[in-house]
Design a protein that fits this description.
This protein has helices at residues 3-30, 36-57, 60-78, 84-105, 111-133, 135-163, 179-208, 301-304, 310-315, 339-353, 372-387, 405-412, 418-432, 438-441, 447-454, 463-472, 485-493, 517-529, 554-567; strands at residues 230-235, 245-255, 261-271, 277-283, 319-323, 361-370, 392-399, 504-509, 535-539. It has 576 residues and is an alpha/beta fold. Helix 4 (84-105) runs antiparallel to helix 5.
Length: 576
């Protein structure tokens, strides 16, 4: 074939490869978490192309780099049950090795080539280390950064093919180029370094913002086996504690399901005025499942758990006992939406609070809870007669409670950042129940993301990464239908469907998209059909959190309802 024909074929091949690379990269950028198979193919092909290109260059450093790329591609292919974690490690390792070799090679070149090698090498190494240190960003590196790399390679190949240039196939940083091209590559390397610096600074900010329990939450050497025993207390100060009130954080004994001993922490707040003080036991809403997500650890823990009206509680002369639940503050696991663990934590917090010598608490107790805390409040009412019969529970107020768990799991994927809440459910249930398998619940491409989400508190800066990742996910984290099998059985097991002897108020926002009015109404209908009394109230224009904010019409009604319970007034029953 004539030389001109060879050159024409080469140009067409370069353009074709460039178009394919751009299309593959574009798909991954738009749908970064959609297909593990696509990621495997793209990573392997990309590594092979770059490896062959390096080997063809012939110098010592290129042979090493090419061998590393081909070895990495082979590792992905032969690794049994390749996972997103394997791809993450391969890409991170390739970035680090590539960066180190570029830095080493910089000693043998000069001018813009040296500057480009130093800046590009340092950037690649930093991105690789960041990818290893921050797992869910590693997924983004695999799915997005590698996709962008493909797009860049593809564009360069298309341009080279159209212009008929003989640049190296797939090389991101060609070494044999005109001086002007060298300056353009250096500019690109500097921009890449700036991006890496921004990511590193963001990582530092995120890590510094991670809440961590202090020594107060460590178990003492001698721990009572009896639940509800006060182990430790100390005065607690916070901007959320109003003037005219005192607060203590407490550490106490409790039990998980099946009577397994555990420790929990909590907060006791009481007015300086009249005593003894009737007790409002506050079961907080979702803050996370990691140990540092305890409200007593967080800077604004009460508001993080959706308590916005502590002033109104204290103004009535009532004290507030607010448990963190097991596994928040103390060692885990945290029983997220698992009724026995949540309810026992609430009851044992009230028991332990009565042992404080600095405050005089009355026997009368009304339980409030929002969202996850509403679920906990319902279980507290169910468990009280048998688990803590000595406590006087005068009422239970469940505010937008996560009562209908199968319906909640069904709808969570349709809520903005719903995968974040789904990760908490997965974390809680797989830690508590050996028959609920993480790998069976979560699809391979979402496993690292799900585990990382579950370790972030809603109140920490890093949760923004989880929210953005959740938004970027183009399909749910589930590997199949979560409303089936053993997982569904465990969800049903934790629906608070038993008898609550105390008067029950259930409040629901009509505009709630997380705990939907339809799901709540179905739960209330089931209770009514079972012969239980419920005072069910709905509030127009109120969403999930706005239902319990200070300006909500629920608040004065809740205070009045609680006053009636302490006064022994008969409760309303809205069941037909």
């Amino acid at each position: 074939m004539p030389r001109g024909d060879d050159h024409s074929v080469s140009r067409r091949l370069r353009v074709t490869l460039g178009i394919v690379a751009v299309l593959l990269g574009g798909v991954l950028v738009v749908r970064p978490f959609s297909s593990l198979a696509v990621l495997v193919v793209v990573v392997v092909v990309g590594l092979v192309v770059l490896g062959v290109d390096e080997l063809a260059d012939g110098d010592r450093w290129s042979v090493v780099r090419g061998s590393v790329s081909l070895g990495a591609a082979l590792a992905v292919v032969v690794w049994p049950g390749v996972t997103i974690r394997v791809l993450a490690l391969v890409v991170a390792g390739a970035l680090i090795v590539d960066g180190v070799l570029d830095l080493a090679r910089s000693r043998g070149v000069h001018g813009t080539a040296r500057a480009n090698a130093v800046v590009g090498g340092a950037t690649a190494a930093v991105l690789g280390l960041l990818a290893l240190a921050w797992p869910d960003v590693t997924v983004l590196v695999v799915a997005v950064v590698f996709a962008v790399r493909l797009v860049i390679v593809g564009v360069r190949e298309i341009v080279a093919g159209v212009r008929g240039q003989d640049a190296d196939l797939g090389r991101l940083w060609p070494r044999r180029a005109a001086p002007r091209a060298g300056w353009w590559r250096l500019t690109g390397s500097v921009l890449g370094a700036l991006v890496a610096l921004v990511l590193v600074l963001a990582g530092v900010v995120v890590q510094r913002g991670v809440p961590r329990p202090d020594a107060f939450y460590d178990p003492p050497d001698d721990v009572s086996s009896a639940p509800g025993q006060l182990l430790r207390s100390e005065p607690f100060t916070s901007d959320e504690i109003p003037d005219g009130a005192r607060a203590w954080r407490i550490l106490y004994t409790t039990t998980r399901d099946e009577g397994r001993p555990a420790l929990a922490s909590g907060l006791v707040v009481a007015p300086d005025s009249a005593s003894p003080n009737p007790v409002v036991a506050w079961a907080h809403g979702t803050t996370g499942t990691a140990s540092g997500c305890a409200p007593t650890v967080l800077t604004d823990g009460l508001s993080a758990g959706a308590m916005f009206v502590q002033d109104a509680v204290l103004a009535q002369g009532w004290a507030m006992v607010a448990p963190d639940y097991t596994g928040l503050g103390t060692e885990g696991p945290h029983p997220y939406l698992i009724g026995q663990g949540e309810g026992r934590s609430v009851l044992d917090a009230v028991r332990a609070a009565h042992q404080l010598s600095d405050v005089d608490l009355a026997e009368e107790t009304v339980v409030w809870g929002h969202s996850q805390g509403g679920h906990a409040a319902l279980w507290t009412g169910m468990l009280a007669p048998t688990y803590a019969p000595e406590l006087q529970i005068d009422g239970v107020a469940a505010l937008a409670p996560a009562s209908n768990l199968p319906a909640l799991v069904d709808v969570v994927e349709n809520v903005t950042a719903g995968e974040l809440f789904a990760s908490y459910v997965v974390e809680g249930y797989t830690a508590e129940y050996p028959d609920v398998s993480f790998d069976e619940l979560v699809r391979p491409g979402a496993r690292i993301i799900t585990r990382e989400m579950a370790q972030r508190c809603l109140a920490e800066p890093g949760v923004l990464v989880s929210v953005l990742t959740s938004v970027a996910l183009d399909r749910p984290i589930w590997s199949g239908d979560p409303s089936s099998g053993v997982f569904l059985d465990r969800l049903v097991q934790n629906v608070p469907s038993g008898r609550i002897a105390a008067p029950l108020l259930v409040a629901q926002g009509a505009d709630d998209t997380l705990v939907t009015p339809a799901a709540q109404a179905a739960y209330v209908d089931d209770r009514c059909a079972a012969g239980y009394a419920v005072d069910y109230r709905t509030y127009a224009g109120r969403g999930h959190v706005p239902l319990v904010e200070a300006d909500s019409p629920l608040v004065p009604e809740l205070v009045a309802w609680t006053s009636d319970r302490f006064a022994g007034e008969p409760a309303t029953d809205t069941c037909p």
